Amino acid sequence: MRSRDHDERSGLSAAGSGPSTGAPRTPSPAKPLPSGMKADDLELVESTGSVVLHDTCVPFTRVVPKYSKSSIKCGTEPALRDPVWLVWFDSKARADDYLNQDVDVNVEGNSSGSCQSGKSRSGSWSGGRYTCFEYNNGYAITWTIESRSVYASVADDSPTALYAWWTDHRTLS
């Protein structure tokens, strides 16, 4: 099974206190933005606490969904096969719409499996919604963080390791 955009992510995939819902902060002139980063990218990176390796974060311009403020990829700790891909949308509804595309393409009405055992599933968690599915000879979990209008995606070869990482870090704080 394949997700729209997941081919574009090839080797990449889908971020605590979170990006604010108001106007983005402008970094201090004394601290220049990392190469290629916009202020919204930096705010999204800084919102992730220690879940992602900040010095590995880069803008992800190959897939920039419509209505997104920021699209970045970052390494994870512990390391997974693919970096986490984070997209900060301009609204919760748009993040949910993006996740719905993963559900439509990858779950195909079969959401009775277990993410931990490598089966397709979609559902809700306390902070948003999620879906998990086979992806690129491995497994992917995509989810939303409703309070921050963030969509995230990450993949690994082991569904058990991926699910454990997601369970511990899905709030991205």
What can be said about this structure in brief?
By secondary structure, the protein is of the alpha+beta class. It is built from four helices and seven strands.
Order of helices and strands: HHEEEHEEEEH
- Please state the overall shape, judged from the principal axes of the Cα atoms: globular
* Spans of at least 5 consecutive residues with low confidence: 1-18, 21-30
- How would you write the strand order of the largest sheet? 1-2-3-7-6-5-4
Percent of residues in β-strands = 25-35%
Helix tally equals 4
Number of strands: 7
- Note the main sheet: 7 strands, antiparallel
Distance between the termini: 30 Å
What level of helicity do the residues show? 10-25%
Indicate the structural class: alpha+beta
Tally of structural domains: 1
Specify Rg, calculated over alpha carbons: 15 Å
Mean pLDDT across every amino acid position: 80
Describe this structure in words.
The chain has 173 residues and is α+β, with helices and mostly antiparallel strands. It has one domain. Helix content is 23%, strand content 29%. The chain is built from four helices and seven strands, in the order H-H-E-E-E-H-E-E-E-E-H. It has a seven-stranded antiparallel β-sheet. It is globular and about 45 Å long. The N terminus is likely disordered.
Features:
single chain; 173 residues; alpha+beta; seven-stranded antiparallel β-sheet; disordered N terminus
